[in-house]
Amino acid sequence: MKESGLPDRYENDAAEKLSPEKQLSPEQQDLKNAIKAFCIAHQHDEHAVFLIEGDAGTGKSIVINSIFNEIQSLSRSSDKSSPFWKTDNYLVVNHPEMMKLYKNISESYPALKKKDFERPTTFINRMHKSGKKADIIFVDEAHLLLTKSDKYNHFKQGNHLEELIKLARITVLVFDEKQVLKFKSCWSQGLLKSLVRGLPCQTYHLKTQFRVHAHQDVLDWIEGFCQKKILPMPQKQTFDLRFFADAQDLYDAIKKENARYRLSRMIATYDYPYRLDGEDHFIREGRFTLRWDRSKPDEKLPWAERPDTIDEVGSVYTVQGFDLNYVGLILGPSVLYDPVTDGIRIDTSRYEDGAAFTGRDGLQDPEGTKERIMLNAINVLMTRAVHGLFIYASDPALRKRLVQMQASRDAA
């Protein structure tokens, strides 16, 4: 990705970045055209699936929102010659923060209505009750769909995506296997292929990184870390990758960037206790103390856009799918230095997200899956930043290794 200097003011908010009117790159426009052509070609089929793949930050959600707005505009227009006229279409996403964002965006576009956007369980249960079938379902963050029943969330069937495909002629979905975060959503390419086998299916893979405005050495470093490797320190560049010996110093730096450009936040791996009990729960690292994000399901703005959340630490569930200008990331006690490999190792017993590891029935390698989920979470957290990623490691040995690596580069 080519470097991009910061503007005089802060970056646009998430609603603007995901706007249906946002200018697309040639690759993204090509994808949009391919989706539209696929929908027209298969509009009379019983079922068909269009799969959008790509790493975090390649603009998958931007494309899906753009084409959804266009198709809804044609559906609700007076142009009876359009193949999309009076089609019944929906966008579903199993992510409450992203749902807030989509519904907020819909208020600015006459072709979009809030009822067009639903969580998958709500949509599936409603459609089964009505006996109806949609023409096109767009599924953002499909890697968050449930792969097994969940009585707690009122999902009685066996797989979200399987049910969604049954309920639509065409299903367009965004999928990234590296963003799977729970046993209950334990997706793999094999499982995905088994669900679309025998159906007309087209896959498009986005490759260009748009979120992280950094040279390739930074992107390689992040990818390597999520594979338990510590690659050489990237060269100095406009993207600011920094390691901190003190968590409070990191927080002070993030507050400084937030005052200048906004949309800069603290986030952490799920290695610190947190419960939905109405109380505040805190992350403590040395002289640093800050509360986890407060649960506010009725809050209209997503966590990443609320000014008050500079005084909180977000989790992977808070920021997945969102851009931040600067990220202050605390790697908690589960992320350890491995002197034998000069890499990292993951201690799955230190992970505090118990909900992520419920529903292990049927998993062939639960321990290996736990590690994969935790590394996926680190990947999501590390790929939120547009202009700078500041990292503090709780493990003293890992912290020392990262800070020394940075000092050696700066002294060269």
UniProtKB/TrEMBL annotation:
Transmembrane segments: none annotated. Residues 1-20 have a biased composition (Basic and acidic residues). Residues 1-25 are annotated as: Disordered. Residues 46-298 form the AAA+ ATPase domain. This is AAA+ ATPase domain-containing protein.
